[in-house]
Design goal:
Order of helices and strands: HHEHEHEEHEEE
CATH superfamily of the largest domain: Vaccinia Virus protein VP39
Low-confidence stretches: none
Number of strands: 7
Bound molecules: S-adenosylmethionine
Strand content: 15-25%
Number of domains: 2
Oligomer: single chain
CATH class of the largest domain: Alpha Beta
Structural class: alpha/beta
Number of helices: 5
Helix content: 25-40%
Mean pLDDT: 92
Length: 174
């Protein structure tokens, strides 16, 4: 009996440590579930980038899908999410289905470095600077002239076009 209680206690401690760790781990890690865009910020992103019905919004590392759900439901855009983490991929698929948006938003479970993003008109990223530096050549190679890139919290080494200081959103244009 003591053996089982001891093992369950150890397991619970490990789970709690993982949850605590996930609050501080960098946002490009699959162990970072709490680094996410909320609806209010997603609205601010769409307003800054003037997202509308003609847009195809890509969210690189789309997490639970909130940004794309807001872009599609409230601004009429089409959305494409690329997410590497199977759990967040599944959560976003369920949320999109529940919102009746599965015709407008597609989510692929993949590494965004391996997926073409050339049909995007808006690219949204909430990723750490190291990853943004690595993505820059892909942006310059694949994105069409005029594509807006919107980054939450972290800067991209491109000429800044718009800045929402309150929400820490930066917009760049290819
Ligand atoms: C900070 S979260 C942002 C999630 C979502 N974009 C949002 O704003 O709520 C970063 C996401 O990127 C995903 N990610 C990190 N590296 C990735 C990669 N190489 N390919 C696809 N997804 C990746 C993580 O799993 C995580 O869900």
């Amino acid at each position: 009996m003591f053996f089982w209680i001891f093992n369950i206690a150890i397991l619970l401690i490990i789970i709690i440590l993982f949850i605590l760790l996930s609050w501080f781990w960098p946002p490009d890690s699959p162990w970072a579930p709490w680094w996410r865009t909320n609806k209010k910020t997603a609205r601010a992103i769409c307003l800054l980038a003037r997202v509308g019905k003609k847009d195809i919004v890509y969210d690189l590392g789309s997490g639970d899908g909130t940004a794309l759900i807001v872009a599609s439901k409230e601004f009429g855009a089409k959305g494409v999410g690329i997410e590497i983490d199977p759990l967040r991929f599944l959560i976003s698929k369920v949320r999109i289905k529940l919102n009746g948006l599965d015709k407008n938003i597609s989510i692929v479970k993949n590494n965004f470095y391996n997926k073409k993003i050339s049909d995007a008109t808006v690219v949204f990223v909430y990723l750490v600077p190291r990853v943004l530096r690595k993505l820059k050549p892909k942006f310059l190679k694949e994105l069409k002239k005029g594509t807006r890139i919107v980054s939450l919290r972290y800067k991209i080494d491109l000429p800044l076009r718009k800045y929402d200081k309150e929400n820490q959103i930066r917009m760049y244009v290819i």
